[in-house]
Structure formats: C-alpha cells, structure tokens
Amino acid sequence: MITGLAISGYRSIRDVKLQLGQLNIVTGANGSGKSSLYRSLRLLSEIAQGRAIASLAAEGGLASTLWAGPEKISARMRSGEVPVQGTVRSEPVSLKLGFSSEDYGYAIDLGLPRPSPTRFGHDPEIKSEALWTGIQLKPANLLAERRGNFVRIRSNETGSWRESMKDLSASDSMMTHCADPVDGLELLLLRERMRAWRFYDDLRTDREAPARQPQIGTFTPILASDGSDVGAAIQTIIEIGDATALEEAVSDAFDGASLQVGEHFQIEMQQYGLLRPLSAAELSDGTLRYILLVAALLSPRPPELMILNEPEGSLHPDLLEPLARLLAKASKQSQIIVVSHSRQLVAALDEEASSRAIELHKDHGETFVADPCDISWKWPKR
C-alpha cells in the first residue's frame, strides 16, 4: 500500500505531500488541482512502462506541465502588498514525483534538456532517480540510485555498490533498463507493481460505446480501461469471482435487478416486472456506467492500487450510496484512490468506511491540501 505521495512542480502543484490510506477520496472545486493529482499518479505508472517522456509530450511537453508560477510565493505576494513575480531561483527547474510504501519508496526528478541541435531537443531529461526501502529516503536504506547517466545498485549479497550503467539515456528510466532478477531484483519487483496499477477515467457509455455492442468474449479478469469487454468481465466474475457480491451490487442499486450475459457477450439486465431483459443498447448512460464500475471494482484479480477519476459521471444521485458501498467493499482487497467533485459521494463514503478525504483548494494558482497531513520526505539529489 502506498502510504505517502509527493509531487513538486507539476501543473498547479508546486509542492504537495500527502498521506494516503486504504480508501482515499480526493475532492475540491473545479480547477483546484484534482486532475493534476490524478495525472501525476498516471505519469508515475507510465515511468514503469517506459512511456514517461511520450506521456509528457502528449500533454504539451515539459514546458506545458511545469508549475507556471514563481519558485516561491512570499507572504507579501499572497497578501497583495506586492505583485506576484518571478525571483532569482535557488533550485533548478524540475518536475519531481515520488511515493513511499510499507516496503519500498521511489522518486524521480525530470528537468530541462541540455542545449542540443537535435529536433528532439525539447524532450525532458531524467536527472535523478532513487529506490529505497522503508518510509523515508536515507543513505543507509538506498537500494538503487541514478544521477545523470550513471546508475548504481546495492548488491543483495554483500550490500556493496556496483555500477549498473554509466551511459543510460536521459530519456530512459532505471526502472525499465536496470531491473534484473539478481542485483536489480527490487527494481524489477517495484516496476511490475507499478505497471499493475489500474486506472479508470474513460469508461465509455455513449450510444456507440463498445460496451453496448456484441463482442467476442475471452476470459477477462481485468476490465479494459474503456469498458469495451464488460460482458466478458461480468461473465468471468460469475464463473470464478465473487458472484454473490456482483448480485448484491446490482440488486442494491436497481431494486432487485439482476445481470446476465448474452450469447454474444452483451450484458443484459432483468428488472422486476419486465417480461424480458433489457439489452446493453437499451440501458441508460448512468445504468451502464454503474455496471462498468461494478465490473472494475469486483475484478477477480484485484490490483494493489486502483485509481478512479470522477466515477460519479452520469450517475443518478440515488446510485452514489450503492457506489460508496461498492468502493468500501473493493477497498478490502485493493488500495483505492477516487478523484471526485461529488460531495454526496464523499459524504456517503464517510458513512460506509473509514476513508481518508483529501480536499484540495487553490490560492494564487497553487494547489494546497485543506487539512494537510504531511509525510516525512526527502528528494534524491541530482
């Protein structure tokens, strides 16, 4: 379980450190930084996939994703005595991301590229990385370290340092290029765990959504990110997962209704009083979205971490309490982070489980946590 998350220099997040629990709900007004926090988690996962630079490029490049305000905002700037203005920097421009868990911690520092004649001269560079054991980075518990192009890894057998790479490309992470089952075992283990984080922010429910169409079904213990294989995912839950929980989740939300899967792996809902089941094409956007969330949260192969971005979209308010109960149940198997602007969902989660509410707000363009519970944190050196 991730116990702490640290973000610095990313969009509206100049410097935020969060303590996380088993079930977390991130909320706040529009523009408060919820999407930035979600994207930072996604970027961390993509580092383990080897797609960090491409992901930043898709967001407009490092220049578009960096914190756009001054390095520091003084009390006089905040009070309005003097205008907000840039100051002489004491630290290099950087985007830093990291997390700590009960066993391992990881951090990365991305910075501006060195001048180069190449047409790819605007790509960000990985300046430093660190992997350690325990909550906080310390010299004694450091397991792997990257500075510039040089990577060193501590031997599992002797505890001494060995050179892993001395010419690692500035666009490549040590997570993808230095992991091996011998001396890079911890890198390998953490990389695979990060790759397994599950994100849901694009569950399609429009009239042309794949979830409404006939499909070729295969064994599907993990719902696709767009929900396209929901029929196969539901059937997999029925056959090898918690079919009782599935039945309860649907009945709880739709007054005794039940789900079944048709011949071509289309979901069908049987509602009380109807002589035939309703096909996926007949379901409302909100009903289909709830079913997609059920398929995601009751996965027979639960992830270590699942992040959902605004799952309440298109849901009728009456479905928010059943969704909260579903989230609370799923959090017993996976750590869950929900990004939401629905106060009704936040209130429902507070009633159903000892969830951790993280409310964001913005001051002078900078994202803050309303009730901060900072973690002890130290960034790796360049």
Description of the molecule:
Strand 11 (258-261) and strand 12 form a beta hairpin. The longest helix is centred in the first third of the chain and has 16 residues, at 34-49. The protein is α+β, with helices and mostly antiparallel strands and 382 residues long. The protein folds into two domains: 2-196 and 361-369; 198-355, Rossmann fold (3-Layer(aba) Sandwich). The radius of gyration is 23 Å and the shape is globular. It has helices spanning 34-49, 52-58, 62-65, 75-79, 174-177, 185-195, 230-240, 243-253, 285-297, 320-330, 343-352, and strands at 2-10, 13-19, 23-28, 94-101, 104-111, 125-133, 142-147, 150-154, 161-165, 198-200, 258-261, 267-270, 278-279, 305-309, 335-339, 356-363, 366-369. The mean pLDDT is 91.
